[in-house]
Design brief:
This protein is an alpha/beta fold. It is built from nine helices and ten strands. It has a six-stranded mixed β-sheet, sandwiched between helices. Strands 2-1-4-5 form a four-stranded antiparallel β-sheet, covered by helices on one side. Helix 5 packs parallel to helix 6. The two termini are about 30 Å apart. The structure holds adenosine-5'-diphosphate (ADP) and magnesium ion (MG). GO terms for molecular function: ATP binding. InterPro entries: AAA+_ATPase, ABC_ATPase_HisP-typ, ABC_transporter-like_ATP-bd, ABC_transporter-like_CS, MetN_ABC_transporter-like, P-loop_NTPase. Keywords: Amino-acid transport, ATP-binding, Cell membrane, Membrane, Nucleotide-binding, Transport. Belongs to the ABC transporter superfamily.
Length: about 250
């Protein structure tokens, strides 16, 4: 498989003092996360600990009650979310492709709507991205004609077509059949080695250990520990992390 081209320079992303409640459920309780430019941060933790909600605040899909998101050291809370989202791409567990559009239209949509590209330019860019994930031949098909792994590669191509400076991944392999997981993880590892700034929520502990520069363990809406993969996996400091690792490893 060919490598993914990312033209834009990497930028660091930070979450500072993020609080978010859904009704009386205080989901994020002062979360701090600092991801240096060009590095990959993995977030691990039990179900319900707030990982997806944190990622959504980092893409401005959810607005925190307090705290801020910074890109390249500058708060983005006053930016137009649609402009901001061109800089921070996101891939979801359930792909979130538009079912009524072709694969090509899925990838050109944001380029035309947000980047205001003409049809030809957008289609050329989309075909290039689809080729990079090995799916140029699927351009005229609806997502329903593709396997889960292929759909997720389309979602990745769609996000990368916007030339984001940061990529967020929320359990992107959790809905895939086991034999399709490796292909996605390999693309993500390539993207990481090319210097994309990435925040990856994952249950794939092998990926976190081998690809991440930094691993963050979240539980009950707080960051319990952050460190290098070896530190987190081989020398956990807290009882909570030790218990979590006993369950998943
Ligand atoms: P994780 O991704 O770690 O499994 P989530 O961020 O999805 O955790 O959820 C954290 C908590 O927030 C859970 O208690 C969940 O029920 C709640 N939650 C998440 N999204 C919403 C929402 N849109 N409305 C209400 N509650 C939500
Ligand atoms: Mg989640």
């Amino acid at each position: 498989m060919t490598t993914i081209q990312t033209a834009t320079a990497a930028v660091g992303i930070e979450a500072r003092g993020i609080h978010l409640s859904y009704g009386s459920n205080h989901v994020l309780r002062g979360v701090e996360l600092d991801v240096e430019q060009g590095t990959t941060a993995c977030i691990i933790g039990p179900s319900g600990s707030g990982k997806s909600t944190l990622l959504r605040t980092m893409n401005r899909l959810a607005e925190p009650d307090a705290g801020e998101i910074l890109l390249d050291g500058r708060s983005v809370m006053g930016d137009d979310p649609n402009v901001f989202r061109q800089r921070v791409g996101m891939v979801f567990q359930h792909f979130n492709l538009f079912p009524h559009m072709t694969v090509l239209q899925n990838v050109t949509f944001g380029l035309r709507r947000l980047r205001r590209m003409g049809r030809e330019e957008a289609e050329a860019e989309a075909m290039q991205q689809l080729a990079h994930v090995g799916l140029a031949a699927k351009a005229p098909f609806r997502p329903s004609a593709l396997s889960g792994g292929q759909q997720q590669r389309v979602a990745l191509a769609r996000a990368l077509a916007m030339r984001p400076q940061v990529m967020l991944f929320d359990e992107v392999t959790s809905a895939l059949d086991p034999e399709l997981v490796k292909g996605i993880l390999r693309l993500m590892a390539e993207l990481s080695s090319e210097g994309m700034t990435m925040v990856v929520v994952t249950h794939e502990m092998g990926f976190a250990r081998n690809v991440a520069d930094q691993v963050t363990f979240m539980d009950a809406g707080v960051v319990v520990e952050t460190g290098a993969p070896e530190r987190i996996f081989d020398d956990p400091q807290s009882a909570r992390l030790r218990r979590f690792l006993d369950q998943v490893l």
